[in-house]
Specification:
There is one protein chain. The protein has a single domain, classed as 2-Layer Sandwich (Alpha-D-Glucose-1,6-Bisphosphate, Chain A, domain 4), CATH 3.30.530.20. It is 18% helix and 44% strand. The protein has three helices and ten strands; from the N terminus they run βββαβββββββαα. The longest helix has 19 residues. It is globular, with a radius of gyration of 16 Å. It starts with 8 loop residues before the first strand and ends with a helix. The model has no long low-confidence stretch (mean pLDDT 89).
Length: 189
C-alpha cells in the first residue's frame, strides 16, 4: 500500500462516528479513517468480525463472503465480493484477517489485508489489486471500546478516482452504524 500524505480532513461527524479522508501519495484515491466508541466487550467485537458469513449484514456493499481457511484462532483467510451499482462491475478480493492482542496496553490490533493468488480471477468481476484495513481498538473500562479504523484500497479496473472518492466516507459510516446495531441487538438477546 502507498503511504498517505497530507492531513486528515473530517468529512462526516454523526452519531458518534467521525470519518476523515486524505489523498494517498498517488494523488488518486483517498484513504479513510474512522474514529468511534463502541459499547461492547473485546470478545463481542471479535465475534462479529470473525463471523465471516455475516459480514454482508454490516459491511457496506458486501454481497457475499466465505471462509477459505482458518489459520488458528487469530487468522482467517476469506473471500469477499463487493457490489457496485450498474454499469460498474462488482469487485472481489481475498482477505487475510488477523487479530493481535496487546494485554499490557489493553489494545487489540486487527488487520484485514488483501492477498493475491489464492482464488482465480472470476469472469465478470474486477479483482481488487490492494486493500489494507487496520483496526486499533483500545479497551476502556465499562465495556467500552475506542476504535480507530484506517482503510487504504485500490479498487482496480477503470473506475474514475473522483467517483471512488465521492463515496469514501459513506461506506465506512454505514458499516459502523450497522456494526453498532448488530452488537446492540446481540447484547439485548
Amino acid at each position: 500500500m502507498c503511504l498517505a500524505q497530507g492531513k486528515w480532513v473530517l468529512t462526516k461527524d454523526e452519531d458518534g462516528i467521525k470519518v476523515y479522508t486524505r489523498l494517498l501519495n498517488t494523488g488518486k484515491f483517498k484513504e479513510v479513517k474512522v474514529d468511534f466508541e463502541l459499547s461492547a466487550t473485546e470478545n463481542q467485537l471479535i465475534g462479529v468480525l470473525q463471523d465471516i458469513n455475516h459480514h454482508k449484514d454490516w459491511s457496506y456493499g458486501t454481497k457475499r463472503t466465505y471462509v477459505i481457511n482458518r489459520k488458528g484462532k487469530d487468522t482467517i483467510i476469506y473471500y469477499s465480493e463487493v457490489s457496485l451499482p450498474w454499469p460498474l462491475s462488482n469487485r472481489d478480493l481475498v482477505i487475510e484477517l488477523s487479530f493481535k492482542k496487546d494485554t499490557v496496553n489493553n489494545l487489540l490490533h486487527v488487520r484485514a489485508k488483501s492477498i493475491p493468488g489464492i482464488v482465480p480471477v472470476k469472469s465478470g468481476l474486477v479483482r481488487v489489486p490492494s486493500s489494507l484495513a487496520s483496526w486499533d481498538v483500545t479497551v476502556l473500562p465499562g465495556h467500552l471500546l475506542k476504535i480507530e479504523y484506517i482503510l487504504s484500497a485500490d479498487p482496480g479496473g477503470a473506475l474514475p478516482a473522483w467517483l471512488v472518492n465521492l463515496g469514501a466516507s459513506v461506506g465506512p459510516y454505514n458499516s459502523f452504524t450497522k456494526l453498532k446495531a448488530i452488537i446492540e441487538k446481540q447484547k439485548a438477546n
